[in-house]
Amino acid sequence: MPDRIGSYARTTGETEVRVTIALDGTGVSTVNTGNGMLDHMLSQLARHGLMDIDVSASGDSSQTGWHHTVEDTGIALGRAFAAAVGDGAGIRRMGHALVPLDEALSQVALDISGRGYAVIDLGVSGMDIGGLPGDLVRHFLESFATEARIGLHATVMAGVNGHHKIEATFKALAKALKDAVEIDPRAATQVPSTKGTIT
Question: Does the residue 58 lie in any domain?
Fold first, then answer.
C-alpha cells in the first residue's frame, strides 16, 4: 500500500501555516501554532488517532487575536488530511467514538464522504480555555471538516470544565478518524461509495 501522507502550505497576509499528516503513523506530533492549548489538542489528535502530524503556524495574533491562526490551521490540516486520504480506496469511511474525560463526555461521528459539513455543539462558547477562545474550537472543527470534505458531528454530552470538554472531543475525533481511515481487508481496493467516488 502506498504511503498515505498529505501536506499543505498556506500563506496569506494574515498567517503562514504548514501541515504534514501521515495516516499510518504512530501518534508522533510536532506542533507549534503559538497557542499552547491548540498545540495540546492537535497532539491529542495525533496520539489517539495514531497519525503523525507536523504543524507549524504563525500569524497576526498580537494584532487580531487567535481567529486567523486557528481558522487557517484548521483549513490547512483539513486539506492535508484530504490529500492523505486520496481517492479513499479501501477505507472504512465512517467512524464514531464516545470518549469520557473525568466529568466530560464527548461523542463524535463522521463520514469521509467528499462532502464537508459540520454540526458542532461543545458547550464552550464564551469560555477562555487556557488562552484559546471556546468558540474558536467550534470554528476550527468546522474549518477542518469543510476542507477535509468530511461530514462531522461532534457533541459534548456532559461536562463542566472547558478543557475537559474540548480534550474529550479531540480524543473522540482522533479515534473516529482512526477507524474511518482504516483499510477494510474485505474491500481493500474498492472506493467505499455506490457512486464510485468520494472525491
Answer: yes
Write out the chain's pLDDT in tens, 199 residues: 579 999 999 999 999 999 999 999 999 999 999 999 999 999 999 999 999 999 999 998 888 899 999 999 999 999 999 999 999 999 999 999 999 999 999 999 999 999 999 999 999 999 999 999 999 999 999 999 999 999 999 999 999 999 999 999 999 999 999 999 999 999 989 888 989 898 8
Q: Rounded to two decimals, what is the model's pTM?
A: 0.96
Q: CA–CA separation, 111 vs 87, rounded Å? A: 14
Domain holding 50, by residue range, is 5-184
CA distance 49 to 182: 11
Query: 69 lies in a domain?
Result: yes
67 three-class SS: helix
Cβ(170)–Cβ(129) under 8 Å?
no
Contacts of 195 (CB under 8 A, 6+ apart): none
Domains contained in the chain, number:
1
Non-local (6+) Cβ contacts of 23 within 8 A are 4, 5, 51, 84, 85, 181
